[in-house]
Design a protein that fits this description.
- It is a single chain.
- This protein is α/β, with parallel strands linked by helices.
- The chain has 17 helices and 20 strands.
- The structure holds 1-O-alpha-D-glucopyranosyl-D-fructose and calcium ion.
- The site of 1-O-alpha-D-glucopyranosyl-D-fructose has 13 residues, from loops.
Length: 582
């Protein structure tokens, strides 16, 4: 691997996220598994990614598809055995591919041994591993925090006569990170996985682990609840710093904290290397939806950000972390609708063009790019029309709440789910045009997107014009061009409402062979132009100037250079580098 021995090897790496349940089923039970992943390593090697992040594969009752863990040191039998895991790890390493594990330690499953002890009585030694509170004087929960999946964040426990906190489902009780024994247990477990040879952690809702003293209510929400105030709590940095000292600093890991509710300044505190916390974070500002029309139901009735809003958000993060921290770059993951459906155009005419355009826009930014399974094929939303087709706990609980309590028409709520349900990302990976898209020989746990005959890996891997081949080229470029990993981001065309354009620039390296006289420039620069609309757009003057100065076309989603206009969803990257004429 080209990045093997560097301490900050993840700075020019590309990460691929696997949602194991939906990736590849090796034994016909309809559920993707570890042996399925191992069988597709050559596909991933061909794509060229450096790292695989696996959504949770640990033992779990599956209330939230594995984000509710009942044993951190055991593999979910649905996914295979620990031997299968070890083999997958070894096979990945043999191909120069690293493995990053999902670390879900804001909460456990209610079936975890710690919680079963904790709930058994008020004086159990593990009582304080979780967050227990008395009812208020009227018997109500101690505050009005809502669970992210609907309803109160507090569940009454009959046996011990107290409420416990669960920011997600009632089967996901929150751990009490203020208890040093909890931190000891978590750090031990992390060390155990590191000693096994894994290469990093993606840390689930890590911005929520430190609860504010007194657990005060947040902003009002529908249904009589308030948002929680648990993001970026008072001891977040202390705990991350301890984790770094006691675990992370001892191995050459990559770490990324999933951080709902985080802003640029908090992200700097977490990712500034001198502070010794994490390498990077997932922020949410570009995927949360726009508040421009007002919204009552948060993500459900918010439109996707328009291009200018998206550009403003990305640019804020690009400038904000420059020289201070490090960005992670993503459009898709297992919680988000498909980016080509949300930010591009998934009609047959424009799907391929707009998928490549979005990929261009994201991958040329500064940071570590993440590709979510199927994104490299331009997979689209599933648009499931009936609630019985949905599997995700958040979608099902939201449907109940909005149709029953809020009395919204079913069609309206299905419309919300079609746009933003997490199940859009969780339909099976589309491998080929055979039954069930080649994902399983049995019955898939969630329906396959009906468009698999046209959109699948087999059709794309050998096709020079496919979305897959385009991603492959983007990855190759990141590995080859230092400016792509290290260059400074600068927005151009700030008021253009069709074209998102920016440059990336680095000073040409000193101490290299002396430049030939007359050729050569002081700096290496990329100019990126992305037309986010299906209408042609005027070719920005910076593109014309660069071409006049001898810039070359590095990559684009049309075969040739534009003539005067950018075509529908055109993406074009020009390179003004060492060796191009002034
Ligand atoms: O997600 C946390 C999170 O804040 C969201 O993206 C979440 O999915 C929310 O419901 C969106 O509306 C993480 C995991 O990625 C997610 O799959 C888990 O359900 C959640 O934590 C709880 O572990
Ligand atoms: Ca299986």
């Amino acid at each position: 691997m080209n990045t093997q021995n560097k301490a900050v090897w993840w700075k020019d790496a590309v990460v691929y996220q696997i949602y194991p349940r939906s990736f590849c089923d090796s034994n016909g039970d309809g559920i993707g598994d570890l042996n399925g992943i191992t069988s597709k390593l050559d596909y991933l090697k061909k794509l060229g990614v450096d790292v695989l992040w696996l959504s949770p594969v640990y033992q779990s009752p599956g209330d939230d598809n594995g984000y509710d863990i009942s044993d951190y040191r055991a593999i979910n039998p649905e996914f295979g055995t620990m031997e299968d895991f070890d083999r997958m790890l070894a096979e990945a390493h043999a191909r120069g591919i690293r493995i990053v594990m999902d670390l879900v330690v804001n909460h456990t499953s209610d079936e975890h041994a710690w919680f079963m002890e904790s709930r058994s009585s008020r004086n159990n030694p593990k009582r304080d591993y979780y967050i227990w509170r008395d009812a208020d004087s009227k018997g109500n929960p101690p505050n009005r925090w809502a669970s992210a999946f609907g309803g109160s964040a507090w569940e009454w426990d009959e046996t011990s006569g107290q409420y416990y906190l669960h920011l997600f489902s009632r089967k996901q009780p929150d751990l009490n990170w203020d208890n040093p024994s909890v931190r000891d247990e978590v750090f031990d477990m992390m060390n155990w996985w590191c000693k096994k040879g894994i290469d990093g952690f993606r840390m689930d809702v890590i911005s929520m682990i430190s609860k504010p003293d007194g657990l005060p209510d947040g902003p009002e929400m529908p249904g009589g609840f308030t948002a929680s105030t648990s993001c970026n709590g008072p001891r977040l940095h202390l705990y991350l710093n301890q984790m770094n000292e006691r675990v992370l600093s001892m191995y050459p890991l990559m770490t990324v904290g999933e951080c709902p509710g985080i802003g640029v300044e908090e992200a700097v505190l977490i990712t500034d290397p001198s502070r010794r916390e994490l390498n990077m974070v997932f922020q949410f500002e570009h995927v949360n939806g726009s508040a421009r029309n007002g919204s009552k139901y948060d993500k459900w009735d918010r439109p996707a950000l328009s291009m200018p809003e998206l550009r403003e958000t990305f640019s804020k993060w690009q400038y904000g972390l420059e020289g201070r921290g490090w960005n992670s770059l993503y459009l898709d993951n297992h919680d988000q609708p498909r980016c080509v459906s949300r930010f591009g155009n998934d009609t047959p005419e424009y799907r391929v063009l707009s998928a490549k355009m979005l990929a261009t826009c994201l991958h040329f930014m500064k940071g570590t790019p993440y590709i979510y399974q199927g994104e490299e094929l331009g997979m689209t939303n599933a648009y499931m029309t009936d609630i019985t087709q949905y599997r995700d706990i958040e979608s099902l609980q939201t449907y109940e709440f909005l149709t029953k309590q809020e009395k919204l028409p079913k069609e309206t709520v299905i419309g919300y789910l079609q746009a933003v349900s997490r199940d859009n990302a969780r339909t099976p990976m589309q491998w080929d045009s055979s039954a069930n898209a080649g994902f399983t020989s049995g019955t898939p746990w969630i329906g396959v997107n009906p468009n698999f005959a046209e959109i699948n890996a087999q059709a794309q891997t050998g096709d020079e014009t496919s979305v897959f081949t385009y991603y492959k080229e983007l990855i190759r470029l990141r590995h080859t061009l230092p400016v792509m990993a290290e260059g400074r981001y600068e927005l151009i065309q700030q008021d253009n409402d069709q074209v998102y354009a920016y440059t990336r620039t680095i000073a040409a390296k000193k101490n290299q062979e002396p430049e030939k006289e007359g050729s050569g420039r002081e700096e290496d620069q990329l100019l990126v132009f992305c037309n986010f609309s299906k209408d042609p757009a005027g070719l920005p003057k910076e593109a014309c100037d660069a071409l006049e100065r001898g810039a070359s076309r590095l990559i684009g989603n049309y075969r040739d250079l534009p003539k005067g206009q950018l075509r529908p969803y055109e993406a074009l990257v020009l390179h003004l580098g060492k060796g191009t004429m002034e």
